[in-house]
Amino acid sequence: MGRFYQATGTQFLIVIDVAVKGDNMEYRANVNGLDVLASYSDGSVAQIFLPLLRYLGELSYKKGSRVLAMLAAPPAAGKSTLGAFLEHLSRCTPGLSPLQVIGMDGFHRHQDYLETHTMVRDGVQVPMAQFKGAPETFDVNLLRAALESVASGEDCPWPAYDRTIHDPIDDALRVTGDIVLVEGNYLLLDWPEWKGLRSLADYTMAITADPKVLRERLINRKASSGMPRAEVEEFVERSDLYNARTVLAHTASPDLMLRLLSSGEYVRVS
User: Fold this and answer.
1) CATH number at residue 256
2) Angle of CA points 221, 223, 229, to nearest 5°
3) Are 81 and 103 in contact (CB under 8 A)?
4) How far apart are CA 50 and CA 35, in angstroms?
5) Does residue 82 belong to any structural domain of this protein?
6) Residue 29 covered by a domain
């Protein structure tokens, strides 16, 4: 049986504790305010993640300036946890260049804005707050400006999203890395207002998955908050799964495509 790397996390993609137990590597990382558990096999690490990190390091060396990579994936595909793991792996593996991971969730519009503005869903004007997490509820112009600063090589502030207060925290992080990976749902969206983001990246990645797998993961994640099952399923169908289908249908082809399996493992598609 292959070794499995175990990850548990809570907020902001910062590894705070590492322990090796037998054939397992367990680490705690801050992942958007949620406790998560992910397992990565020796095969995934050796065949996908380490080659990816080596490639980004080579790209940085050849370019001679900051490399910006993007990872786009639907909700519940494990992108934030994977980003935290990749950052940890880059920093604890000899010969690899360190990766700095940041997320786009800090560009959610603030709750008070969502509660006073509307958006169109299926031809009907609806309150934004009811569909928080949809592309329309992000400040894409502010995100674009911030990504331009990162791509230019500037050391710059970056916001983070705190799920414990359900709002962004401005200037929570500082981007200083030579290789920066930004992760989020809509970074490679082919919608007119989003599609220009891709041109800022030196390398792009995406995760796809069976909607049934995502639905189960979304329900399990939401149910952990204590919400009744019936309410969880209604919310997931109305909001999170709708957003997941948008990402699956409208993410532009990346340089690297991974598929999330029902086991939680990733396999390379292209």
Assistant:
1) 3.40.50.300
2) 140
3) no
4) 25
5) yes
6) no
Residue 229: what pLDDT? 85
Phi, psi of 79 (to 5 degrees): -65, -40
- Inside any domain, residue 31: no
Both tokens assigned to 93: 């593996």
Within-domain flag for 25:
no
Work out the average pLDDT over 125-154: 97
Residue with tokens 């290789």: 179
Q: What is the DSSP letter of 237?
A: I
Range of the domain at 49: 38-107+138-268
Domain count, the chain: 1
Distance CA 162, CA 181 (A): 19
Helices (H) and strands (E) in the chain, counts: 8, 14
> Does the pLDDT at position 189 exceed 50?
yes
| Token pair listed for 268 | 């390379």
Q: Are 253 and 208 in contact (CB under 8 A)?
A: no
pLDDT of residue 222: 80
